[in-house]
Model the fold of this input.
Amino acid sequence: MNRDEILSDLRMIMEDVFDCTDFDLSEQTTAAEIEAWDSLSHIRLVVAIERHFQIKFSSMDFRYWNKVGDIVTSVVEKGTKAG
Done:
């Protein structure tokens, strides 16, 4: 999968996790820009991403995610099996 495909899948995952569709999403988007993205939903997001892409993150992998592009990079680095 390329970065755009991953970003598209992330949007779908985030809409489900955050129970919200009213947000702009790009690789530059941060948690502060999405009202529903708090510490609890962040953990739920990690789990949902792992399930969707059939990958596993260590706590160090997602601890330093500052923007959506960091998530995309982590998914690319772990390899994707979704699609």
Observations:
- DSSP finds four helices and no strands in the chain.
